[in-house]
Amino acid sequence: MIGDMAPPSDQTARHLQKLAALVTQRRAQLRLSQEKAAKTCGMAYMTYRKIENGESVYASTYAKLEVGFAMRAGSCKAVLDGGDSITLEDGTELIEGGRITPLDPATLEEGLREAITKGATLTAPNLTLGEVQAINERVVEELRRRGILPSAS
Length: 153
Prior knowledge:
Layout: H1 10-29, H2 34-41, H3 45-52, H4 59-68, H5 75-80, E1 85-87, E2 93-95, H6 105-123, H7 129-145
Antiparallel strand pairs: 1-2
């Protein structure tokens, strides 16, 4: 385990609580229950609960959490060493107390189509409206295929 079996110092306890808050935030962002989060990370439910309860677990358990939640390797240790955030694999950061605003897929798709249209007309003004619409459809379909946008209903 990180640290020994002696009661954690106040500072260590604060770092464990900060990590717990960040992990809980990430789980909410991923829309997972604690049970589902434990399965996603390949650990027992009670072990996962220890993390969200601010209890120390083995370093290898934090590594499983980082993989399952798409956090950069070493993110948990960085918080336990006093860091303020967790960096995700995509480069974004989770900051303690940060608000999670779920992105509406319809708003994302609409904004994406507008951005593609604007970019295409500025970059290649010789494209016809039909060609720009075809590009939009191909991009949106590719994002659906990758699971970034939901399937058309």
